[in-house]
Amino acid sequence: MKLAVFGLFLLPLPLAAQQTPESMLADSSVTAEQMDRLMHYQQGQIVLKDGLATLNVPEGFRYLNPDQSEFIIVKAWGNPPRDKSLGMLFPSDLSPFTREGWGVVITFDEDGYVKDDDAEKIDYAKLLTDMQEGTAEESKKRVKDGYEGFRLVGWGEPPHYDRASHKLYWAQELEFGGNPQHTLNYNIRVLGRRGVLVLNAVAGMDQLETVKGSMGQVLSFVDFNEGHRYADFKPEADKVAAYGIGALVAGGLAAKAGVFKLLIAGILAAKKLVVAGLVAVAAWFRARMGKKKSAPTSA
Questions:
Q1: Which SS3 state, helix, strand or coil, does residue 52 take?
Q2: Using an 8 Å Cβ cutoff, are 170 and 159 in contact?
Q3: For residue 104, which phi and psi values (nearest 5 degrees)?
Q4: Domain residues of the chain, as ranges?
Q5: Do the Cβ atoms of 116 and 239 come closer than 8 Å?
Q6: Which of 29, 195, 221, 230 would bridge with 110, disulfide CB 3.0–4.6 Å?
C-alpha cells in the first residue's frame, strides 16, 4: 500500500464534485472516509460470474465489485495490473484506505475438477519443508535481479480440508526483505465442478487472530450455485484438473504458463501483496514437477 494512503485519515478536506478516485488518491489531504464514500460497497446476496457462485454477505462484511476492487489492488495497494478478480470482501469496520485495512480477493481458476483423494494422505510438515527450500532458492534469484528477498516462515494456520463442504483453508507467514513486520496470506479454496473458487486474505501477521475469525465466517457464506457444485461433477463430460489437494496448497495454480512471471512482479508490494502465498511456493512446485518429468522410467 502506498504511504500516502496510510495518512489519508489525518488531513480532512472537502471533496470537489468532479474529482475521480484516482485524482483523490493522489491528494494526501483526502481522508479515508472520503475515499470510502466513492466505493460502491454491497451487502446481502451477491451473485458471481453469471451465476457461478453466491455470496450471502452479512453486516460484518461488505463486497466491492471487480472494477473498484481493481482500483484498490492496483492504485491504492500498489500491486501490478493483473486479470480482474470477481470482487473483494472487506470487514465493515475497517477501511481499505487505512493502515489496518485488509481484504479478501476473490478469483476463479477454471482448471477442472480437483480430485480430493489425497487430502488425508498429505504430510503437511514435510510439504512445508519442501516449500521453504523452494522459496529460499527463488529468493536468491530475486536478490540477484535487484529485488528484496523473501522467505516462507511457516504455517500461520496448517492446511485443513473439510471433505463435507469441499473447502480447503490454510495460512502462511511470509517475511519480505528482513522486515520484522511479517505478511499474512490466509487462503480459502472452494472446490467446484469445473474449478476452484479462490479467496485470498492479505494482512499483517499481527492481525492473524482477527483474520482467522473473519475467514471462518467467510467459509460459511460462500458457495457454488447448483450445477456448479463439486457434487455436480459429470465424469463422462467434465475436465479433471492435473493436480490434487497437495499441489493446490503448494502453489500448483501459480506455476501455470504465463502466470508465474506476473506473480513475481507483484512481490514488490509486501504488506498488501495479494498473491504472496502463491509466489512463495510456486518455485517449489515447478521444481518438483520438473523432477518428475525428468525421472527415468522403468523398463
A1: coil
A2: yes
A3: -115, 120
A4: 1-38, 39-294
A5: no
A6: 195
How far, in Å, CA of 84 to CA of 108, rounded? Answer: 10
Please give the DSSP secondary-structure letter assigned to residue 11. Answer: S
Q: Which residue has the cell 499441489?
A: 247
Cα-flanking dihedrals φ and ψ of residue 18, to 5°? -85, -5
Find out whether 167 and 72 touch, Cβ atoms under 8 Å.
no
Label residue 27 by pLDDT band (50, 70, 90). Answer: low
Residues 136/143, Cβ–Cβ less than 8 Å: no
pLDDT tens for 223-263 read 999 999 999 999 999 999 988 888 888 764 333 322 223 23
What the block records as the C-alpha cell of 282 is: 510456486
What pLDDT score was predicted for residue 160?
93
Q: Are 251 and 282 in contact (CB under 8 A)?
A: yes
Give CA–CA dist 80/97, Å, rounded.
Answer: 18
Is pTM beyond 0.70 here? yes
In DSSP terms, 44 is beta-bridged to: 57
What is d(CA 40, CA 21) in angstroms, rounded to the nearest whole number?
12
Grid cell listed for 5: 494512503
